[in-house]
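EI: anyone free to look at a 84-residue chain?
SC: sure, send it
EI:
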Amino acid sequence: MGGPGPGSWALHVFLQGDWEDGIMRLFRRTPPAADGSRKPSRAERRAAERTAQAEAKLARTEQQIHDLADEVRRDLGGSAGRAR
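SC: here you go
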């Protein structure tokens, strides 16, 4: 009798008495073999670059929105003073 067969992993963990750790292993974000020491793949590097470019563009867009809002406030403030 070798290791646990397919589909019996949870039963094996339960019988080993390591149930809580086994349940937490089910919800890990990265597989156990993935670690930080490996070189990112080309797709991961390209995705990171696209993310960085999108974040930079978002920052520029947000700044433009703030600049426009400041301009509108100045315009409204100037016209409100003239209307009185």
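EI: The chain has a mean pLDDT of 77.
SC: 👍
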